[in-house]
Fold this protein.
Amino acid sequence: MPVYSHSRLETFENCPLKYKFRYIDGIKKAEQGVEAFLGGLVHEVLRKLYDDLQLEKLDTLDELLDFFAARWKQAWGPHVRIVRASMTEQNYFDYGTKCIRNFYERNAPFRQSQTLGTEVHLTFPLDGEGKYQLQGYVDRIARRADGTIEIHDYKTSRTLPAQEKADADRQLALYQIGVQRQWPEARGVELIWHYVAFRETQRSCRTAQQLVQLRHQTIELIDRVEQTTRFDGKRSNLCDWCEYKPDCPLWQHPDSVLALPPAQFKADDGVRLADEYTKIKFERDTLELRLEQLKEQVIAFARQRNLRIIQGSGAQLSVRLSEAEKFPGKREEERAALEALLKGAGKWEEISELDTAALAHALENAHWPAALVAEVRRFATQVERVSVTLHRDGKGSGEEKS
Ligand code: SF4
């Protein structure tokens, strides 16, 4: 089993296909979003600040800004991608400068705690046997005079999240597990996020019970990743920042044809197929709706005149009216009582059967024990399932074949 990290798990949660590209296929991309580029350099500057402080040198703000400018110039290149078309390199450079200035002015002279390390690499197990290993790089670890260990994280994002997000954050809480292992004498641990664009700091603490729960949840998530055999793409607004977008089957065709001149766009085989499918589907939906309306009219006509056969030009319509017993559905109140009655009478096995669609869904989503999932999967054979879904105004209507 590989050593997991918060970002590896987060990538899986956000998009299993991106996870596959990066961690299973090991595809590396030189391209980098400007936000990640900028974040990396701000981290570098703040690392220099605290590394120099450990050697009793307090950098001035101007020195740090010069360092930032030099590193920016050195590292900038065509591999840095600006997604927001209205923004320029200068805008991002100025934003980075503001972040560094904010941090400096808010925290100088930086003696609130003693730095124990910057970019600290932690590796630690989540379980007693050491099967589930986690690793991460902490921006800065420091110790206060009262013995409390601080785990610091620098954020250059343009949004300031609510305190609840900090209290639910997984990344630093996982680091706390590693820190407590490395510094068992710590009086306590505090998680600290520096939202440098806002001059704001958020703080959070975790109880021992919360950390036990986090260990369990993370192990369950790792089991889910390990059991995954299909890595589907998940479209979201993160796609614009995804380095695998040019290789992604969810974007390859739209991105390639939307850039074409109108005549070439219309002539593209994919566009023609999609257009014809949409047209026929719309016509079929309209006809189905009309058929339902006609059916209701036919039934009303037959009831009104007490008819059972209605003559047409070349065919007859037969209308059958009958009574049938209807029992409570799965979500109806009486259902539980009915099921209890049948189970109590020993008749449940006779009238119930395995719902294989529900079983497949549970294997994917219900977080069953890994051994049970493996045992159940021994009975499964792989079949290809293909679906075509039409998206209009962001809403999909799908048809599936297998
Ligand atoms: S572009 Fe979007 S859907 Fe495709 S791999 Fe990247 S994140 Fe996933």
Q: What stands out?
A: DSSP finds 15 helices and twelve strands in the chain. The longest strand covers residues 114-125. Confidence is low (pLDDT under 50) at residues 394-398. Residues 360 and 380 are 9 Å apart (CA to CA).
